[in-house]
Design a protein that fits this description.
alpha/beta; D-Maltodextrin-Binding Protein, domain 2; 15 strands
Length: 261
């Protein structure tokens, strides 16, 4: 049994006048081990990943919990495991980035949105030298689609049964497309641009084309919490911090460090 839940059961956590006290132990935070730059990723030293986890999302949660004097740890895990750990809530009580879906709303408490991205489809120019015939979201389904394991593509209107999700990294996913095994993959340009700054610059690959999905709204991202009293109190703390950071322009200021205007 995780430290947090153990402490809760023996009374180390208690209800005060304003709710559950989150002090005196360490909150477990996780996120996608395949990295999610520029939001969550390993700092590079001489081109190689270090053990330090950085990014916009890390800056935001560090500021919010630090201001409240709440200790935390961050560990990146394989994405499916990360989600399962937060659902269980024993060792990890939140993850930093997730798009909304009905399934996730049932499993987790969800924060206010704190950043958004634009949806693109990526394809091989060798396989489709004339481009793809995509005029709206429904047209995406005419093509074979590859995606990352555990990721939700609900914002694209794509169900899990309609997409191959057998890869765990962007390099493997892009490889599937360039080898012609699948027609397209779906992702925000911000994420692939961020990925290109920490590994190979895939956006400079002459065979990889990318186009904004016509008619698609921006995808909003949230922090998500385990569905128990601890997660509920964390959500309150984080939502309060996000409101204040949005009102003061602090969220925009932090994001500019990673995505200059």
């Amino acid at each position: 049994m995780g430290k947090l839940i153990f402490l809760y059961l023996i009374g180390g956590l208690f209800w005060g006048a304003w709710g559950l006290d989150l002090h005196g132990f360490t909150i477990g935070i996780t996120d996608d081990g395949s990295e999610w730059p520029p939001y969550t990723y390993y700092q590079r030293v001489d081109g190689k990943p270090s053990t330090e986890i950085v990014g916009f999302s890390v800056d935001v949660i560090t500021e919010i919990l630090g201001r409240e004097g709440i200790d935390f740890k961050i560990q990146l895990l394989p994405w499916k495991r990360a989600q399962a750990e937060v659902e269980d809530g024993s060792e990890f009580q939140m993850f930093l980035s997730g798009s909304w879906s009905e399934e996730r709303a049932l499993k987790y408490y969800i924060s206010h949105p704190y950043y958004s991205t634009s949806g693109y489809y990526f394809y091989s120019k060798t396989k489709f030298p004339e481009g793809l015939s995509v005029n709206n979201l429904d047209d995406i389904k005419k093509y074979s689609i590859a995606g990352l394991a555990g990721h939700s593509y609900a914002d694209y209107g794509i169900a899990s049964s309609e997409i191959y999700q057998g890869t765990n990294s962007y390099s493997a996913l892009i490889g599937q497309i360039l080898l012609g095994r699948y027609d397209i993959f779906l992702e925000s340009l911000e994420i692939i641009a961020g990925y290109s700054t920490i590994t190979e610059n895939v956006l400079d690959n002459p065979d990889l084309a990318y186009v904004k999905v016509p008619g698609m709204k921006t995808v909003e991202f949230y922090m998500m919490f385990t569905k128990n009293e601890v997660g509920l109190e964390l959500k309150k703390v984080v939502d309060k911090g996000l409101r204040e950071m949005k009102e003061t322009g602090r969220l925009t200021e932090l994001l500019k460090k990673y995505i200059p205007e």
